[in-house]
Specification:
It is a single chain. This protein is α/β, with parallel strands linked by helices and 547 residues long. The chain is built from 15 helices and 11 strands. It has a 7-stranded mixed sheet, with helices on both faces. Strands 8-9-11-10 form a 4-stranded antiparallel sheet. Helix 5 runs antiparallel to helix 13 (412-447). The two termini are 22 Å apart. Residues 39-50 have a biased composition (Low complexity). Its cofactor is pyridoxal 5'-phosphate. The modification N6-(pyridoxal phosphate)lysine is found at residue 357.
């Protein structure tokens, strides 16, 4: 069972206010601080219509946070595992019974609403902090990141104009620059991941945009390429491996491009020779087309990384654009020991990079990085009430071209706090620990005669299946474990067969957790087949995973 603890919460939220707030201090220039707006009060004495921001906001939040934390704790204890038992119908019935009317005529008050709804959602959640919740690229967020996200919600900046987000927009610029230099350490003035904040011209040096995740970042990468090709008098044609994320195909459709030309990806990685042949065929068949090649660094099914140096060589020789989807594998760059697995990434024209996967951030925390910020100019857009020309000329930053979205939450704040709290070395330790746990799981599978291992992990995904079992057995076992609330196990269709998938993203996982997972899978397989799949793992008692 994972623990949820917040230390020093009371010290973090001192009572603000003025003469009308007991124990408070006067506001600026001796004026009384603001008083929360009057309205119905919950059982805690907190006015249910109180605002979260302003000088009085923390005082209104404090008792409500106590209710939330209590509900989270109770829900985790009542659930007692990685996900609720009973399947969709049981979860739906419990939730409806607990919540009742979601829009009652008369409200029940803030505390009761929080305790009931947060408690019900926590009770029936799939909790990625539980070691046996390991199906998806769905990470357990760090406590420091979740705490920072509370501040983002309370302050509620919107990053579509400077006058809505004066400080948050500057934080975004700093974080985007730092992460872009991590991806492109040799680009721009003051090159290198340790360059800090070098002075650069408006279009010089690497930069990044904050996105909602890999899907939006991939769409932006394709959009940048489409516009560049159009400016050169060409027409973009997406070329990707059979291993590419589904969002590449969807983005091509949304952008009005032809369906991607799909290149073989034997053993789950893009074949450079097949790519070379495909680009040659495209050039001969359609002289007006300009290839937009999408490679992957960390596939969803197996975590495989395409041979980026060889792909980049082919792309440059053919005069194509290279976008790399490193939504999963990108954070390997934090680690000096692991970043060589991404050699060649720095040769891309654009890179997708997520921190709500192997970065332990609450959703959403995605980025699109480019080696030269001039490439982002195609996103420039004018709306007079947000970025009027005279305001921009007077020095107010133009934020509207930083996204296809208008209203934007300050998701960058939790990232900035996490990076400052842990530093690159701390992030590297978490990445290395997680990848070591995946290697340990793969070693256990390889030693176990009950299972067939697909491959040792490149990042942190382990794919395996039962020896002698068919695809139907793999599917039934996964559903049984879900139904019983025991394990959240993924599935991957690889090379014509169905496999179980464990995506290790919990840096606190222990060897005993890995052994327990394999034991539960084997027992379920035995129950679903004619006989047991074999004996217990010989090293189920191990308590640690060495990095």
């Amino acid at each position: 069972m994972s623990a949820f603890a917040v230390d020093g919460l009371q010290d973090a939220f001192p009572v603000p206010g003025g003469r009308d707030v007991p124990g408070g201090r006067p506001g600026p220039e001796g004026r009384p601080g603001p008083e929360p707006g009057r309205g119905p009060e919950s059982g805690s004495g907190v006015r249910d219509g109180a605002l979260a921001g302003g000088a009085a906001g923390p005082a209104a939040l404090r008792p409500l946070l106590g209710a939330v934390l209590g509900a989270l704790s109770r829900g985790a204890v009542e659930r007692g595992g990685p996900l609720p038992e009973g399947g969709p119908e049981a979860v739906g019935a419990r939730l409806r019974a607990a919540v009742g009317a979601v829009l009652p005529e008369q409200g029940v008050g803030a505390r009761e609403a929080l305790e009931v709804l947060v408690g019900a959602v926590a009770r029936d959640a799939a909790d990625p902090a539980e070691p046996l919740c390991a199906a998806h690229l769905h990470c357990p967020p760090l406590a420091v990141a979740a705490a920072a996200d509370l501040a983002a919600s309370a302050l509620n900046p919107s990053l579509d104009s400077w006058d809505q987000a004066p400080a948050a927009s500057e934080v975004e610029a700093l974080v985007c620059g730092a992460l872009a230099r991590l991806v492109f350490p040799g680009a721009g003035p003051g090159a290198g991941p340790d360059a800090g904040c070098p002075e650069a011209g408006p279009d010089e040096g690497p930069d990044a945009l904050v996105t909602t995740g890999g899907t939006e970042a991939n769409q932006l990468g394709l959009l940048l390429a489409r516009e560049r090709q159009a400016a050169a008098g060409g027409r973009a044609r997406v070329v990707c491996g059979a291993n590419a994320h589904h969002s590449v195909h969807r983005s091509a459709w949304l952008l009005g491009l032809e369906p991607p030309l799909v290149v073989p990806a034997p053993r789950g990685v893009l074949d450079p020779a097949a790519l070379e042949a495909a680009l040659g065929d495209l050039a001969r068949a359609d002289a007006g087309a300009r290839a937009l090649v999408v490679a992957t660094a960390g596939t969803t099914d197996t975590g495989a990384v395409d041979p980026l140096p060889r792909v980049a060589e082919v792309v440059r020789r053919r005069g194509a654009w290279l976008h790399v989807d490193a939504a999963y594998g990108g954070p390997l760059l934090f680690s000096a020991a692991l970043r060589q697995r991404l050699v060649g990434l720095e040769q891309a024209d654009s890179v997708t990079f997520d921190l709500h996967k192997l970065g332990w951030q609450p959703v959403a925390a995605g980025f699109l990085a480019v080696p030269e910020r001039a490439a982002l100019r195609v996103l420039d857009h004018r709306a007079d009430y947000l970025n009027a020309d005279d305001d921009t000329e007077a020095g107010l930053p133009d934020l509207l071209g930083r996204s296809l979205r208008t209203t934007r939450r300050p998701d960058v704040l939790k990232v900035a706090v996490t990076l400052r709290a842990l530093g690159r070395a701390g992030m590297a330790r978490l990445v290395e620990r997680t990848c070591a746990a995946a290697r340990e799981l793969a070693d256990r599978v390889a030693r176990d005669e009950r299972f067939e291992l697909y491959a040792h992990p490149t990042v942190s995904t382990v794919v395996f299946r039962p020896v002698g079992g068919d695809d139907a057995l793999v599917a039934r076992v996964r559903r049984q474990l879900l139904e019983h609330g025991q394990v959240v196990l993924g599935r991957a269709a690889v090379e014509g067969r169905l496999w179980w998938k464990v995506t290790v993203l919990n840096p606190a996982v222990r060897g005993s957790d890995l052994a327990a997972l394999l034991k539960l899978v084997a027992e379920a397989a035995g129950a679903q087949s004619a006989g047991p799949v074999g004996g217990d793992s010989s090293d189920a008692a191990d308590e640690g995973v060495e990095a």
